[in-house]
Specification:
CATH superfamily: P-loop containing nucleotide triphosphate hydrolases
CATH class: Alpha Beta
Order of helices and strands: EHEHHHEHEHEEHEH
Strand order of the largest sheet: 2-3-1-4-7
Number of domains: 1
Number of strands: 7
Bound molecules: adenosine monophosphate
Helix content: 40-55%
CATH topology: Rossmann fold
Radius of gyration: 17 Å
CATH architecture: 3-Layer(aba) Sandwich
Structural class: alpha/beta
Strand content: 5-15%
Shape: globular
Largest sheet: 5 strands, parallel
Distance between the termini: 17 Å
């Protein structure tokens, strides 16, 4: 299964990608997670990308593309993948097509999680993330355990440094200016599945599973 998961910051992409990873047994590839890990490890890549992440700006396409190209060449991606937070620009969408062609792969679906902007800001300020196992919480709808500990692995949960109101606004502006065009790009190719991300997380996951199943059946009917 090869999936692209689109949606603005706070739409629930990460949460849904983690569930899909478990359900379909293919890796979630989150460019944001890869960049954050590099920053935390103080690696060469981390030094290059830290200022972009802090500012809520996009990492340049050439750097992002070479990283994704490398990640997709790893063995576990042969079984499939869920691309989470990538592509975020039209050149990245064109670039990923080239990588897919080189491997002889095709995308099974592009899922767009949409949600009203006013909900996004409150979701992001309420978000907490486990720095160890990456489980995502919401302080009201899906809180961590007592004393702010991750219910999966017991690590104290964190606020992402870019989940502050000022950087959130910047990330929203970047989404409108650069990433919304990616949705149109896939819509024009009639490859897009729209999912309402405003619902409760289990319902969103149900909608995704149903849409993927429907897509699989219609592909089988055509064959
Ligand atoms: P995310 O975890 O997806 O919200 O991404 C966090 C940050 O990582 C973004 O605000 C960007 O600075 C950077 N980033 C993640 N994915 C990409 C991408 N595909 N292209 C450029 N920058 C990205």
């Amino acid at each position: 299964m090869r999936i692209v998961l689109l949606g603005p910051p706070g739409s629930g992409k990460g949460t849904q990608a983690q569930r899909m990873e478990k359900r379909y047994g293919v890796p979630q590839i989150s460019t944001g997670d890869i960049f954050r890990k590099a920053v935390a490890a103080k690696s060469e890549l981390g030094a290059k990308v830290a200022t972009y992440l802090d500012a809520g700006a996009l990492v340049p396409d050439d750097l992002t593309m070479s990283l994704v190209r490398e990640r997709l060449a790893q063995e576990d991606a042969e079984r499939g993948f869920i691309l989470d937070g990538f592509p975020r620009t039209v050149p990245q969408a064109v670039g990923v097509e080239e990588i897919l062609r080189e491997h002889g792969w095709e995308l099974d679906a592009v899922i767009n999680i949409s949600i009203p902007t006013d909900v996004l800001v409150s979701r992001l300020t309420m978000r907490r993330v486990c720095p160890s196992c990456k489980t995502i919480y919401h302080m009201v709808d899906h809180p961590p355990g007592p004393n702010g500990l991750c219910t999966v692995c017991g690590t104290p949960v964190d606020v992402r440094p870019d989940d502050n109101v000022e950087t959130i606004k910047k990330r929203m502006a970047v989404y409108s200016a650069q990433t919304a065009a990616v949705v149109d790009y896939y819509r024009k190719k009639s490859a897009l599945i729209d999912v309402d991300g405003g619902a409760e997380r289990d319902k969103v996951f149900d909608s995704i599973q149903k849409a993927l199943e429907e897509k699989r059946r219609s592909r089988e009917r055509r064959q």
